[in-house]
Amino acid sequence: MVERLSFEDQISKNKWRSTLLISVILIAFVVLGFVISLAVEPGYFFIIMILSIVFSLGYVLISYYNAEKIALAAVKAEEASRTEYRSLYHAVEGMALASGLTQPKVYVMKSPQINAFASGRDPEHAVICVTTGCVEKLNKQELEGVIAHEMSHIANYDIRFMTLVTVLVGVISIIAEIYLRSLWFSNNDRDSKEGIIFVVLAIVVAILAPILAQLASLAISRKREFAADATAVKFTRYSPGLKSALEKIKSEYVLVDKEDSKHYASALAPLFISDPFKKGFQNMLSTHPDIDERISRLSAM
Description:
By secondary structure, this protein is mainly alpha-helical. It is built from eleven helices and four strands.
């Protein structure tokens, strides 16, 4: 007998795990800053911190306030016609009512893959984009399941959450990069044994901290997908719809179309309901959890 899973419990667990993982990134940031401060002069360290924070925040804020425009332009999406995509609009309207959210604008991108993504900094500025393959290959319940998953990302403020993660990862990477590059130009006067130890320790941490932060960021992305699946069940009260859609997506993994994959920007891969590059396997470097595990969890809800 399969143990039944509560979607509310799954939502809570995945959000808690996301918070735990972002704590790992914060710890990496603090440790990196502390170790570098021991290896360099305080004034120099202050300049590194200011530059890295300004660059990272500037880049992310521009992306954050234009997230939906950048994403739609990258995949060459067009606003969906109500007459041509009537079933799609019905699904979006139904899930907007179920979630209690403002109905997002609906876009379509040309691709035979079954895929979709949501973007926007909040529900009032959100958009949902689906592929033509999604509309053509999914039935009513499956399409509703996919739309519910994307509405879940909007409801859970995942764009905002992942923006915070991106800021932290960006700051860590920039601090580490500035420090490592500065070693080529600096005349380090700290020739004492203790000074050399601090420098070596700072180099090691500057190399490892961005890697650890990036791995934690990818893990957070996977947890948010699990949370969106569970929230989709909450909205639809019908897990077989999304489960069946994921099964169809899985069946496409063997049909790798390299030409079609060129339509997807790699930076946008985490936004989609499934990895658009159809790798068919997951590991620590994956933006999405194992699709079989997702299907298994939905089967138990």
